[in-house]
Amino acid sequence: SPWAQEPKRHALLKPASKRPFNAEPPIGMLADKFYTPNELFYVRNHLPVPSINPDEYELELVVELSNAQSNRTFNLDDIQKMPKHTVTAAIMCGGNRRSEMTRIKPVKGLSWGPGAVGNAKWSGARLCDVLQAQGVQPDERLHVIFEGADLDPTAHPYGASIPLSKALDPRGDVVLAYEMNDQPLSRDHGYPIRAIVPGTVGARNVKWLTRIVVTDSESDSHWQQNDYKGFSPSTDWDTVDFSLAQAIQAMPVTSAICTPMPEERVKVDKDGCITVRGYAWSGGGRRIERVDLTSDAGKTWHVAQLEQENLPDGRHYGWSLWTARLPISADQQKEQHMEIWAKAVDSSYNVQPEAFENIWNLRGVLANAYHKVKVKLSQ
Ligand code: MTE
Ligand code: MO
């Protein structure tokens, strides 16, 4: 059975599906640490986890230009001997928070809560160094295809691609990573090497990387062509034409409340406030500028305190954790229940949409409306 070699997983990872293994950590723990502990980092596998012997591991690089083709093979040592680059990046699944979108109308996809995201420090060789050493020059028409060692039943590997301009940009911080939070990658997260494409949807961060192709077309894989794309709320399975939509690359701004959790009973403190914590993130290296919270459906907003790296905008790939103290009125305390809303604003002043109705799409991706959590109050 292809499932006989699956790794052991942490008991707190709650599976959305077991084969392939897909799981997110308890939301209440997600904002506890700026760097998500490796064993609690969400796992999104489309296929069985490949078992790779590091001594036999090979990474093939193919450069296909109109006038020339070159091939080169690297082993693990070759990659680890190159200058080591470390970048903090949140990885988020394109379907993160899908379960909230499903409440509007059913969608196809794993029912993710807000935990299909994690933040880590990734170390490895920079893809721009590898490509430059092979003489690859900037060209807006080209793409970089990544293939994994995980194969579907027809022996096709998991694959995805990114524009060459992102791969060659030294500020793009794309790395062939062999470490996650200073530890060797675990099998679930891509051992021995995965592509880390900061600011870009999780699907392009290909694990168990075995092949890189620089060429003039995007990956022809299912996941690049017929999945991870956005559509109008009126597009349905009878009318959808995947060839007309752009593959998701940079993700839109989003945030989520991690504590309190839905339906949790929260104690109002002696100053008449409750404390709310969560995360916020935007794709494309856009820093989070602000997170706003309301407990009265937007009549009054309270600005959260941010915990984030001090990095220039455009190259700010990690998430921001935030904490807010929300004053609770006497009326709310009497009613004993209320709803908290969170919305984030990024450095381009992009802001989350208020509701899911107008961003609903049949695959349930890009689910970034305000996060709304109902809680109960106690004295
Ligand atoms: N890479 C391979 N080879 N196979 C996969 O199934 N899943 C992708 C991406 N890379 C996938 C892959 C998707 S959709 C996501 S969201 C991220 O890996 C999840 O990364 P993680 O499991 O390390 O959190
Ligand atoms: Mo994903």
UniProtKB/TrEMBL annotation:
GO molecular function terms attached to this record: heme binding; molybdenum ion binding; molybdopterin cofactor binding; sulfite oxidase activity
Gene Ontology CC terms: mitochondrial intermembrane space
Q: What organism does this protein naturally occur in?
A: Drosophila grimshawi (Hawaiian fruit fly)
> Could you tell me the EC number(s) of this protein?
1.8.3.1
What UniProt keywords are attached to this protein's entry?
Heme, Iron, Metal-binding, Mitochondrion, Molybdenum, Oxidoreductase
Q: In which pathway does it act?
A: Energy metabolism; sulfur metabolism; Sulfur metabolism
Protein name, entry field:
sulfite oxidase
Any GO BP annotation: sulfur compound metabolic process
Encoded by which gene?
Dgri\GH17659
**Segments forming a coiled coil:** none
EC class name? oxidoreductase
Highest taxon of source: Eukaryota
Q: Which cofactor does it need?
A: heme b; Mo-molybdopterin
Q: Where in the cell is it found?
A: Mitochondrion intermembrane space
Shown portion of the complete protein runs from 214 to 592 of 592
Q: What is its main location?
A: mitochondrion
